[in-house]
Design a protein that fits this description.
Number of helices: 7
Structural class: mainly alpha
Shape: elongated
Number of domains: 1
Length: about 210
């Protein structure tokens, strides 16, 4: 924000030209905000591509086929399709936010676009964290109900079952913690910059 800070200082010195200075500051904030939203869109697309290729490396469908469970194959295929459909919807909204923020022509509309973008990104993060929890729980339940080796292990030993529950809970906490930090670093920094722009726009709008 060095350019913006210098421009603001110049604005304060030259009180005779507030309208021109406001327009210059608005233009700079508009450009910076659209760049941030564009970066959010690009990162979300790259993130989906990464998880898609990771999914190809770890073929759960092949594992369920070995268990002779066509139901699980169909279940996880439907689960995966729904998950990708929701994520695709988020990416589309990110794209719309980017297009909207590029064409706004007033301070109020730009502020509204920034808030909408922040809200969408937060929903996206919470959705992904929720899917991690649901996916981990489903994975443990299905594994202990379909894998013959695990069924045999827990059949006559209740303590193994309780240990498995503890492992599942620990796995959920660790995974959610790791991904929360990941999203906080990845999107949090961008959202912080975007909110800083919002606060600067509020000063202009007053």
């Amino acid at each position: 924000m060095e350019e913006l800070d210098l421009l603001k200082k110049d604005w304060k010195k030259n009180q005779n030209f507030p309208e021109i200075s406001e327009n210059e500051i608005y233009g700079m904030l508009h450009k910076k905000s659209s760049s941030i939203v564009k970066l959010i869109l690009i990162i979300s697309v790259l993130e989906v591509a990464l998880w898609f290729f990771v999914g190809l490396l770890f073929d759960s469908e092949e594992y369920f086929r070995k268990l002779n469970s066509s139901f699980l194959v169909d279940f996880f295929n439907v689960f995966t399709v729904i998950n990708y459909a929701v994520i695709a919807a988020f990416i589309y909204i990110f794209y719309k936010n980017y297009k909207n923020i590029c064409v706004v022509s007033s301070t109020k509309h730009l502020m509204k676009s920034i808030l909408n973008t922040r809200k969408t990104v937060n929903y996206y993060i919470w959705y992904n964290l929720a899917m991690i929890i649901v996916g981990t729980i489903l994975g443990f339940i299905l594994a202990f109900n379909t894998d013959p080796n695990l069924i045999k292990l827990t059949e006559h030993n209740d303590s193994v079952f309780y240990i498995a529950i503890v492992i599942c809970l620990v796995a959920i906490v660790v995974l959610v913690g790791v991904f929360w930090l990941f999203y906080r670093l990845l999107y949090g920094i961008l959202l912080k910059k975007l909110y800083k722009n919002y606060n600067e726009l509020k000063k202009i709008d007053l």
